[in-house]
From TrEMBL, chain A:
GO molecular function, one term: oxidoreductase activity, acting on CH-OH group of donors
Domain of life: Bacteria
Name the record gives this protein: GMC family oxidoreductase
Domain Glucose-methanol-choline oxidoreductase N-terminal: 204-330
Keyword line: FAD, Flavoprotein, Oxidoreductase
InterPro entries: FAD/NAD-bd_sf, GMC_OxRdtase_N, GMC_OxRtase_C
Keyword match DNA-binding: no
Domain Glucose-methanol-choline oxidoreductase C-terminal, chain residue ranges per copy: 434-551
Family: Belongs to the GMC oxidoreductase family.
Source organism: Kribbella antibiotica
A Pfam family reported for this protein in Swiss-Prot or TrEMBL: GMC_oxred_C
From TrEMBL, chain B:
Top-level taxon of the source organism: Bacteria
Keywords for this protein: Membrane, Transmembrane, Transmembrane helix
Protein name from the UniProt record: Gluconate 2-dehydrogenase subunit 3 family protein
Record field: transmembrane: 12-34
Amino acid sequence: MRDVIVIGAGGGGPVVAKELAAKGLDVLVLEAGPRHAKPRDEWTTFENDANNPLSGYFRLGPTDRSKPAWYREWPQNSFVWQLSGVGGTTQHFYGNYPRAYPGVFKGYDGADRNEYDVNHRFPFTYKEMVPYFEWVEALMPVQTAAMGHKEQLFFKGAETMGLPVQTTKTTLRASYRPQENAILQPQGTAGKTSDKNLLNFPQAKGCTFCGYCFQGCMRPKGAPRNQFAKRSTDNSYVPMALTAEVWATGGRPAELIADAYVTQVHSEKRNGVLTATGVTWRDNVTGDEHREDAKVVVMAGGCTENPRLWFNSGLPNPNDWVGRGYTDHFFDWMIGSFDDYTGNPKGVGSSARLDYPPYGGLENVGLPPALSAFSASLSDSGIRGQYKNGRGATGPWDGPAGRVAGPELKELLSGGIDKLLTVLVITDDDVEAQNRVTLSALPADENGPIPKVTFKQRQRTKRTLKNREFMARKAAELLRGAGAKKVYRIDWAPLILHVQSSMRMGESENNSVLDARGESRAVKRLFIADNSALPNGLGGPNPTLTSQALATRTAEKIFQTYFGGDPWVLKEAPVVSTDPRISVRLGQLGL
Amino acid sequence: MPTAVPLARRAFLARIGILGAALGGGGLLTRSLLNPADAATNPLLPPTVDLLRPVLAALARDTMNGLTVFCQPGPDAYSRTQGTVSKTPGAMESGATNFIIESLDNFVPFPDALAQPIGAAMVTGLADTGIVLPGLELLPPQLRQLDKALAALLQSDEALPLSLPIAMLLNLMATQVNPLAVNGPHLSPFARLTYAEKASAFELIEKTDADLVALLDVQFPEPLKESVSGLLKFVGGALIEFGTFGAYSEYAVFDPKTRKLKGRPVSWQLSGYQPDGPVEGWDDFIGYYQGRTEVHD
């Protein structure tokens, strides 16, 4: 009998594992995908090798890449970018750690209070969340991002928009700023040279501006795993969880098993109350099934897999909200082409942003060629100049929205990958019951019936649709201000990268799966601690910081409720994840 | 005497490309190979099946050539037919056709339970949509032989490579857009289209609801019916998006054994990405915006 079993080692699960391992609990973490313990032996810098969703090392599938990826049903033109493996989607993220907007929390009384997703607010206040934000920010650590040429250009555009620069952690108004990111900023030779002989740790520390965030961070070369620049959980929380005995008094290292696909959460009635008792997982390699019991089970498999596991476990769904209310920031994509150098594929993927509560936000994104081409090709508006698929909006961009494809795409990229600046349009989108995960009618895979992810992008709420149009226009304004000679709007089909709220926490038991403590309403001792637990889309900010802050709070609730412990966030200061004691212990463990 | 195969059936085989690939001008089978007398001497296994397999693979490849040059045109004959020939390397040089076929046939974990009925529907469908097609002078006995071979192939335990039904879908749409595409250069109707016509074919796939599923004339069990319609929409988008990703990736020059490149990828040549190859870092750090290195509430 374990104290706690955590399902999933992505962005959220390792937070709970690390916090409770530090308190001396016996924690088992089960990850469905690969361990990726030796990135220099397993990873490259190449887009197809890394990011091919069918066969890349960053895909949704088992470690063995000769085996097929796990198929998921998407009944629309869309792309749900799930990753298995230790680190989950933080393996390919850009480490952006903005805080959720205050307007999405209970008790917010700003002048624009009625303009947010008012029916799906956090069930507690922003003020209550701040210590958890601060805890994660100190632990990662989260810092103000260094600037490269693409950021400089983004700021040049933002400076023309009559908005102030944000110099606080909390976003109070429409404003722009460098990202606050979970990237170790460049020190020594990092960022100052392209000579690989000069870029070994510790001569180079922090971000070397390699531009390979999306292919996984394993730089500077020679650094201990917990001192790689990007603070994906495989570089931060997971190393901490596995070494808790060396940096936490009374800490006990968590156990991590990869290639362990959880297929069932077990429950039984205790004193008339349905209670989680353990899990069954399947070994991807041998196919063997294992069962283990625990005092508390924490689901952290992500917004798509948590509902699937819930349904496949036969757990109750009394208000029918399991899997519903999936938010994705209803992204769009704008490409500016320039006469001058933009530095597009260099440095952290995105180090500049513009926040625009209560509409959403913008951020710059640098990409290598295949991902640039893919991003220009994913559209709900047909192909520019050919067909519009019933849409093809016009506005302050050039021509109709739609795919830049074929000859036009080739011409655009042949103008130089470093003559482009791309902007991600982030929408403050509403929680909607129709956007959801159900079980698919297609055949099951080896782990049971598969999930189906439905997004009705053309029927979203008026507010969501309006916000997206507003932010797309702002993106065009920014690119023009930066000097773009041509601006393209792609009108992305749903590209599900920021995922939130499919197992949402909420004040009302009528439209939420979790109570305000992160415990499921229907099954006691069953908690959810990843993005799916978020009550809403946060107003648009990238979700990882808020998700990890909430998971930290949930870990405290678990410790208080079921292990008789005291909360710690208000009393203690966190150990920083780069701590050399962790590095030394990782070395001893061969990690 | 065998009974004549109905005209609609003949038209359908032409539209998905099989008829032309097997027997059209420049087709891969000679008509004598489909001589009914030969078949009668091998009652256990129609010899045409073995003959047909490479024909179908060639048809799929030709169709995918038509797709990948749509994603990334180059100096090749397919781009020329499409009307977008360009001097710089394109999909044929970036190995995009191999990429898409390998992905579809080996890596798309598309359930057989769905692939088989779609494939079967594609190959056996009638789809009498009233479109008049030119050049269907094939003799009924030969056509019947072709049909028997197709049926035998579908009834065998062999998994149908997914690239085949996808290719047939594209060809069916191609002939919807331009009926004349049943004949011409290349092996497949889709590859014979102009760029604008290919775009129109994708427009038809993308706006699909019930129409295309009805056109396929296939009976899926009820819970699957809605899935098939959604899936076709997904497939329509994915072919463009994934084909483009492959064409602009390092696929053709990547050596999986050494995990190194054997040459410079086409897209790197085109876009100037990483002139000296992969790096450990760049000298692109300018400083901090307005000199600010930290913020506080």
